[in-house]
Specification:
Elements (H helix, E strand, L loop, with lengths): L1 E9 L2 E6 L13 E6 L2 E13 L2 E8 L7 E3 L2 E2 L4 E8 L2
Antiparallel strand pairs: 1-4, 2-3, 4-5, 5-8, 6-7
């Protein structure tokens, strides 16, 4: 049995989104506005089990802290999620 954990941190970031103003009439103004995004902290856990060389299983839990911050403006991450899998080689 192999157990792995990981912790990752992304600091504050800036996202650029297109403004709703009509920039054809305004000279010298950028068509994008900046939006500050919050930091993200992710804690992940992975458990792998090798029964024999050809049969194995795994269980993974991602984002244990259930962070739901925006990855990009208006695109939110999915929060806590899990995976269970089996593998057979012949």
């Amino acid at each position: 049995i192999k157990v792995n954990t990981s912790l990752s941190y992304l600091g504050k970031r800036t996202s650029f989104v297109q403004s709703v103003l009509d920039f054809d009439a305004v000279i010298g103004v950028s068509p994008f506005e900046s939006v500050d995004l919050n930091h993200q902290l992710h804690l992940n856990l992975s458990i792998d089990y090798n029964y024999i060389k050809s049969i194995s299983a795994f269980f993974r839990v991602n984002n244990i802290l259930n962070s739901k911050e925006d990855l990009w403006q208006y695109y939110q991450e999915i929060g806590r999620n899990a995976q269970l899998g089996f593998s057979y080689s012949f």
